Structures are given as C-alpha cells and as structure tokens.
Amino acid sequence: MAVKGAAIAVIIKWDCNFDFDASKCFPTYIFRRLDEKFDIAPGLNFRFAHYYGDSERTLYKAYGIKFLVMAQGRGGKFSIVPLLLNIGSGLGLLAVATILCDIVVLYVLKKKEVYKAIKFESVVENNVNEEGYILCRGKSLISLHVQKGEGNKKKHIGNGNH
C-alpha cells in the first residue's frame, strides 16, 4: 500500500443510549479498502506535469494513500411525550377502524339487516309501573324515599343503594 497507494474508507459509527452516562458512549471504527488490489492500476495514483516551453515537460506520477472519513451516528433517549403520542395515535386509529367497519357492515353489505338486528337491541320498557311509582335504576347519589303524596302526586322509590 505504501508503494502503490490506496483509497481507504474510515467509517466511524456512534450508537449511543443517552439514558445512561454519555461518557461511556464510544465509537467503533471500520476500515475498508475502496480500490481493487488486482486492477490494472492498483492503488491511488495520479499524474501531473511541469511544462518548460512547448517541447519539454517533466511528468510526475504520484502515489499516495487517500483516506475518506465518514461519520455515522445514532443516539436516543427515552421521553414520555413521544410514547404517549404513539399510544394516543394508535388508540385513535383503532377507534377510526371500528367506525369504518361499522359503516361498511351496517350500510354496505348485503346482509346489513342481520347485522343491525344483532348489533342493536330494542328495549321496550315503561319507566312507570302499574301503581304509579317512578322506577329508578342504578345507584343514586342521594337517598330516594317514599313520598306520601296526596292527590295525583307520584311516589318515588329507589333500588336501595345510596
């Protein structure tokens, strides 16, 4: 290489995790020969001339080693903001996918009536029973008690949960 010359690539790779101490981030060096060893003119060489008038010159053929230095790097550090953005985006896409599937199944497909019957359930129920009591279902925040009414006032009862 010293006699014929060469073209050498020096690749410096950094791969660092900045969640840990940055002083422990060391590069790796890769050396690769770019010219062909068994070519007609191996190595790195070039010619140049010094001219002395129109009829004389001195032709120089120079050999050398050419270093091409390339640096590549990658560094990362955990952050909660991109994580939450990715989770939120994923959940949003799942919601959109559900809506699109419902639209296709309920309005486009041939068996849409079958799917509508399965998806939606019709509930026919009166909120007032035969005796004039208004029924409250589920837990309530306040205590509902039986009101003694006069005339056409209705009595309210709860389900016993306070």
From TrEMBL:
Picking any one GO molecular function of the record gives: extracellularly ATP-gated monoatomic cation channel activity
Name the source's superkingdom: Eukaryota
Q: Does the keyword Cytoplasm apply?
A: no
Q: Name one GO cellular component term.
A: postsynapse
Q: Which UniProt keywords apply?
A: Ion channel, Ion transport, Ligand-gated ion channel, Membrane, Transmembrane, Transmembrane helix, Transport
Example of a GO biological process term? calcium ion transmembrane transport
Give yes or no: UniProt keyword Transferase: no
| Coiled coil, from the record | none
Q: Could you tell me where this protein is found in the cell?
A: Endomembrane system
Instruction: Name the residues that span the membrane.
Output: 83-109
Of which family is this protein a member? Belongs to the P2X receptor family.
Protein name (record): p2X purinoceptor 4
